[in-house]
């Protein structure tokens, strides 16, 4: 058994700090005056996230807590992505009003902080127990966030749907974990590697366990065929919540998928690669085809995220350092364009009420040229038009899959991204070529800040692609090298 | 020798109380027997050397679950005798199912073989000469302290969720006012009326609480019926009653 010196508590410093700050903000929020409560809590939450991001950069590398927690380059990279995604979502919630004047309950940013904490635990887990606890912390907060629009029937539906299906997926994952533990006798990833290496033929029960873990994680990522909840939950949840759940928990689940599959079950890659290749293809094709008839922009974003997760998974299928690096770059690009697009969606308000129809965007280029340009940039980027962020993301994952010999996968990906371009460009067409309808309300400064900065980053992605490649490569080497 | 004596005492009471749980007519008695059974099972754990498990059984099962059962039985008006009606009719089926289960257990357990060297081994392993509680404590509070704390935050989030999703802070919400409850007298809350045959309480001032207690702070309509007494009486007259 490990001695206390192996505790190495400092590796989890960012997580500990975030947990403490989250609790303090929660208590403060209860005592703050009603009028200023929400904005102060948001301000404090963003400050807490920025502080956590600094600690992520400062915290020492290494394994701690008797082999349940690790801090390495990969964890740092993913943690930063999660924090940026959560920060954007929290900023989007500042100007959000449930109806004309009511702000959100102040618990929402705090729940987002705790969900981020869960996501960070997932990213750093090297033990199946830590994986599950982190996943539950992250998911439980999101179930509550989804149902937070209490007056809205769709929101309650979203919360209930996500809760029931999510619990079911967690149950499957837990079943998989128990099978893996039963057949290998260990929960630590390093122990799993040696347990798999020592046997000649991998027992069937272990394979079944791995498949169950995969199913659980694919559910969280909304990969086809575990995607059914996505459109309804995206549509029903409050827009900042949708913005949150489309980035931070997905990154954490991807980090888990990469870590579990490549690190602990990496030697069995030929056995699971086909499975992942299939779900990746299905997600891309389904995301592209099912989004075409949508008229609600939040549902469109839901199908779009299904597709994006399929593309990002190509890097994992490639099963190489280059593949992991490609996936990481894809996720960075996805973070920027997705957060920006949701900031634009949050700004879609008429007389104080939210509207979600794509038709409401008609003639936006005349009524609000700045926002139209920003949304057009995000749509072009998601479609993969060079020289925007999305193009480089797609390019690197395609290249990685090609290099590893998955020609069929690349072929399907190219076809589906061409189909997908249709519905992204349709939004641009509606904004620029249709006759203007009633203008939106003037967007709040916080929203302009998010979609303005994100559009600049999306356009200038190529400028910092070089350093990003280096950092992503270091992260990938830490994981799969 | 003493241990064996206690073993048989515990086992005897355990079997007896288990049998009583399913045979007594009164559900409250049945749960009290269940609690007795838990205590004796805890005694068996103590004999086996698993003192932590024994305490856990009492705290969790007796302290929480059995009391919960008791609450449910007392709070809900369930007619247990009607639930039992079919018991004799379906006795044959139940017996068959029990036999199948017994057979399965026998099939599963008959394939277990205990190594001769292990048959005399202690039931509880002695980890570094620690007691059970110490060993578990080291594991939970030292090695897995991060997971333990994370589980704590999961519970905090669950509590936040329950509050966020259900607490509605309206002007009509009825909050507990302890000072007010303390100064209350029986005459403030209780009013006795003799109701004649064919009348209802509405003719005697309505079903609402007596005046001067909570009604003055609660919003109109937040208690019971939102029906005006005069309207009710009018309706009654119109119907010619």
Summarize the structure.
Chain A is an all-alpha fold and 481 residues long.
Task: Describe the protein.
The complex is a heterodimer of chains A (481) and B (241). Chain A is 74% helix and 2% strand. Chain A is an all-alpha fold and 481 residues long. In chain A, the strands form two sheets. Chain A has a two-stranded antiparallel ribbon. Chain A has a two-stranded antiparallel ribbon with strand order 3-4. In chain A, helix 3 (73-92) runs antiparallel to helix 4 (107-124), helix 3 (73-92) packs across helix 20 (465-480) and helix 6 crosses helix 9 (229-236). Chain B is mostly helical and 241 residues long. Chain B has two domains: 2-122, NADH-ubiquinone/plastoquinone oxidoreductase chain 6, subunit NuoJ (Four Helix Bundle (Hemerythrin (Met), subunit A)), CATH 1.20.120.1200; 187-238, no CATH class. The interface between A and B is medium-sized, with 36 and 23 residues.
Essential attributes:
heterodimer, A: 481 residues, mainly alpha, two-stranded antiparallel sheet, two-stranded antiparallel ribbon, 20 helices, 4 strands, 74% helix, 2% strand, globular, B: 241 residues, Four Helix Bundle (Hemerythrin (Met), subunit A), 10 helices, 61% helix, extended
How are the secondary structure elements laid out?
The complex is a heterodimer of chains A (481) and B (241).
Chain A: H1 13-31, H2 34-58, E1 62-64, E2 69-71, H3 73-92, H4 107-124, H5 128-146, H6 153-184, H7 189-198, H8 204-221, H9 229-236, H10 239-245, H11 248-264, H12 269-290, H13 297-318, H14 321-346, E3 349-350, E4 353-354, H15 364-367, H16 369-383, H17 389-403, H18 407-433, H19 445-459, H20 465-480
Antiparallel strand pairs in A: 1-2, 3-4
Helix pairs in contact in A: 1-2, 1-4, 2-3, 3-4, 3-10, 3-11, 3-14, 3-20, 4-5, 4-11, 5-6, 6-8, 6-9, 8-11, 9-13, 10-14, 12-13, 12-18, 13-14, 13-17, 13-18, 14-16, 14-17, 14-19, 14-20, 16-18, 16-19, 17-18
Chain B: H1 2-23, H2 27-48, H3 51-75, H4 80-83, H5 91-109, H6 132-143, H7 145-166, H8 178-183, H9 186-189, H10 229-238
Helix pairs in contact in B: 1-2, 2-3, 6-7
């Amino acid at each position: 058994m490990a001695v206390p010196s192996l505790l190495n508590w400092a590796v989890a410093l960012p997580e500990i700090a975030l947990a403490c700050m989250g609790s303090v903000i929660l208590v403060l929020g209860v005592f703050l005056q009603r009028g200023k409560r929400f904005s102060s809590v948001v301000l404090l939450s963003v400050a807490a996230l920025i502080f956590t991001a600094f600690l992520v950069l400062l915290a020492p590398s290494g394994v701690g807590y008797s082999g349940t927690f690790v801090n390495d380059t990969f964890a740092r990279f993913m943690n930063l992505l999660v924090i940026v995604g959560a920060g954007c979502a929290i900023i989007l919630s500042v100007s959000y009003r449930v109806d004309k004047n009511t702000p959100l309950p102040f618990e929402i940013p705090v729940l987002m902080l705790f969900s981020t904490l869960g996501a960070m635990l997932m990213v750093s887990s090297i033990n199946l127990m830590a994986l599950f606890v982190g996943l539950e912390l992250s998911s439980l907060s999101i179930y509550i966030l989804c149902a937070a629009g209490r007056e809205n029937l769709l929101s309650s539906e979203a919360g209930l749907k996500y809760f029931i299906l999510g619990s079911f997926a967690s149950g499957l994952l837990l079943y998989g974990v128990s099978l893996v533990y039963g057949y290998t006798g260990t929960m630590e990833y390093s122990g799993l590697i040696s347990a798999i290496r020592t046997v000649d033929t991998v027992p069937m029960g272990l394979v079944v366990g791995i498949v169950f873990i995969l199913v659980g994680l694919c559910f969280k990522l909304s990969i086809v065929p575990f995607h059914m909840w996505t459109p309804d939950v995206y549509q029903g949840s409050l827009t900042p919540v949708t913005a949150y759940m489309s980035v931070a928990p997905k990154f954490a689940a991807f980090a888990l998928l990469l870590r579990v599959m490549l690190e602990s079950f990496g030697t069995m890659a030929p056995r699971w690669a086909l499975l992942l290749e299939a779900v990746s293809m299905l997600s891309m094709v389904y995301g592209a085809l099912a989004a075409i008839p949508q008229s609600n922009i939040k549902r469109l974003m839901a199908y779009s995220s299904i597709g994006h997760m399929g593309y990002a998974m190509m890097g994992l299928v490639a099963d190489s350092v280059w593949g992991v690096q490609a996936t990481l770059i894809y996720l960075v690009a996805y973070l920027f364009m997705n957060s920006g697009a949701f900031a634009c969606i949050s700004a879609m308000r008429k007389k104080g009420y939210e509207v979600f129809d794509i038709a409401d965007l008609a003639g936006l280029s005349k009524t609000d040229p700045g926002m139209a340009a920003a949304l057009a940039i995000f749509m072009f980027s998601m479609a993969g038009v060079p020289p925007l962020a999305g193009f480089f993301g797609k390019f690197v994952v395609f290249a990685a899959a090609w290099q590893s010999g998955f020609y069929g996968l690349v072929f399907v990906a190219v076809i589906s991204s061409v189909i997908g371009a249709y519905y992204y460009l349709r939004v641009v067409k509606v904004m620029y070529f249709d006759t203007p309808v009633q203008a939106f309300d003037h967007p709040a400064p916080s929203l302009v800040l998010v979609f303005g900065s994100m559009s600049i980053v999306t356009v200038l992605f190529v400028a910092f692609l070089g350093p990003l490649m280096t950092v992503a490569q270091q992260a990938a080497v830490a994981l799969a090298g | 020798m003493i241990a064996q004596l206690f073993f048989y005492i515990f086992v005897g009471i355990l079997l007896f109380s288990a049998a009583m749980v399913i045979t007594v007519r009164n559900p409250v008695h049945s749960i009290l027997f269940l609690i007795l059974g838990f205590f004796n099972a805890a005694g068996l754990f103590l004999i086996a050397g698993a003192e932590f498990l024994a305490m856990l059984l009492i705290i969790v099962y007796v302290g929480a679950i059995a009391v919960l059962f008791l609450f449910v039985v007392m709070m809900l008006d369930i007619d247990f005798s009607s639930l039992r009606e079919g018991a004799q009719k379906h006795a044959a089926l139940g017996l068959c199912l029990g036999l199948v289960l017994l057979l399965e257990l026998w099939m599963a357990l008959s394939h277990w073989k205990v190594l001769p060297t292990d048959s005399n081994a202690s039931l509880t392993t002695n980890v570094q000469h620690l007691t059970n509680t110490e060993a578990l404590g080291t594991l939970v509070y030292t090695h897995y302290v991060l997971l333990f704390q994370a589980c704590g935050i999961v519970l905090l989030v669950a509590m936040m969720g329950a509050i966020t999703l259900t607490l509605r802070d309206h002007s009509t919400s009825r909050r507990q006012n302890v000072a007010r409850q303390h100064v209350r007298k029986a005459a403030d809350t209780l009013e006795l009326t003799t109701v004649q045959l064919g009348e209802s309480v509405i003719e005697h001032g309505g079903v609402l609480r007596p005046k001067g207690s909570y009604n003055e702070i609660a919003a109109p309509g937040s208690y019971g019926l939102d029906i005006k007494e005069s309207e009710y009486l009018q309706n009654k007259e119109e119907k010619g009653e």
